[in-house]
Write a structure and sequence with these properties.
139 residues, alpha+beta, two-stranded antiparallel ribbon, 5 strands, 46% helix
Amino acid sequence: MSFAEIYQIAGAGMHAQTIRLNTVASNLANAGAAAETKDTAYRSLKPVFSTIYNQTQAGKVSGAQVQVSGIVETDAPLDMRYEPDHPFADKQGYVAYSNVNTIEEMADMMAASRSFETSVEVMNQARSMQQGLLQLGAK
């Protein structure tokens, strides 16, 4: 595997985790947001990852990288609270709040941050190996 492929794989991972962190930020910003109707309530977003396999000229797989194929709304139920005096209350007195689970989002943020850090470390190690090879060639 070439250094360019290592950088491509690590870079794709960093890009995917950046999108994941952006969706977490959006979800946390909308946690606890009330909506006028169930249809307009904010629903938590999650990125969908897929694997892209790199093939050599001979048709062999030489590596794989991640790609974000889309961002979907979760199907978790909305948080319906009985608040008959709220301006957004329906006829039964319930208000629709976003379905964002802040604990899950924080855990997702920590996992995405750690994965991003791992990709950065891979790039740093590859750069270090390249520098070592250059020093060998200079001697």
